Amino acid sequence: MPKVEINGQTYDAIVDESLLAVARKHKAHIGYACGGNGLCQTCEVIVESGMEALSPMNDVEKAWLTAEKQKNGHRLACQCTFVADKPVKLITRAERARQVFNRAFKEQPKEPSKHPQGYVGEFFTWLGMETLSHLSAVPFVTVNVIQRVAEGKLTLQAVSDTINAANERFPEINQIVTEITGSIPKAVGDLGKGLEPVMNSAGELFKNIGNAVSSTDLNKTLEPVVNGVSSVVKGVTDAVSKVIGGATPSASSAQPDVTPVKVEVKKG
Ligand code: FES
User: Beta strand pairing status for 88-92 and 3-6?
Assistant: First the structure.
């Protein structure tokens, strides 16, 4: 009887049984939002050892998992079955997410992160990569689903499987959602703290640029230009005032230096 270790807990399995079936039987933490029909990727796991005890990767897994993930031992638990009586050790993707999140926002790991932006950066990089790999799989999964429907391998049974799975896991899902929403305010606060040094350096940078500009002879350089422009403007306003006889109140109040010119009109 093969044994499988899921997130540090060991369970008995049977040859020909799928990884997801073992997990469901023992209420181990492997997701199955689509009820095991290869439509959701929530059952993704990372096999750390014992891959030879599992069936080869099928087309559904190849559609969902990037080449990088396939190389690094990722599998869909609903699609792979035990083919040999050998132990398997794995971690779920959900558990990996929990670990990365906790390192970033809940724990204070002794070891510094290898990521340039620390554990917070590590979390957002992980999240971004997961989102990208999920989105990039959509065209392949769509083709795979069409093929399976055409071949009669995917039927309306998938709908009732999905509903049953949701009902079965509702209490757990509800608890997870409550925990996540409860930790968001703290996460945002911690993110703010994480960004503080970045904002401080940006402020320092702008201050230094300001100092550099004010310490140059920029003002002296621009002084003749500014004076030249002022003279031109004054000349124009003088000329206009002479023509209209200083009759515009706004012009006279804005230009106190302008001398009113008396205009005499001679009768012909
Ligand atoms: S349970 Fe949905 S893809 Fe495996």
Answer: parallel
Domain extent at residue 144: 3-210
d(CA 160, ligand 1 centre) in Å: 14
**CATH code, 131:** 3.10.20.30
Largest pairwise CA distance in the chain: 126
Q: Do the beta carbons of residue 46 and residue 112 sit within 8 Å?
A: no
Question: Ligand 1, residues 29, 76, 140: which to mutate, most atoms within 8 A of Cβ?
Answer: 76
The residue with tokens 């997990």 is 23
Do residues 88 and 139 share a domain?
A: yes
Residue the block writes with tokens 């509903």: 163
Q: What's the CA gap between 57 and 60, in Å, rounded?
A: 8
Cβ–ligand 1 distance for 40 under 6 Å, the answer: yes
pLDDT digits (tens, 9 = 90+) for 54-73: 999 999 999 999 999 999 99
Strands 74-76 and 44-49 come out as antiparallel
Higher pLDDT, 83 or 239: 83
pLDDT digits (tens, 9 = 90+) for 97-155: 999 999 999 998 999 999 999 999 999 999 999 999 999 999 999 999 999 999 999 99
Number of domains in the chain: 2
Report whether residue 78 contacts ligand 1, using a CB cutoff of 6 Å: yes
> How many Cα neighbours within 13 Å face the side chain of 218?
7
Determine the pLDDT at residue 215: 64
Asked if 172 and 46 sit in the same domain, the reply is: yes
The answer to whether position 260 is within a domain reads no
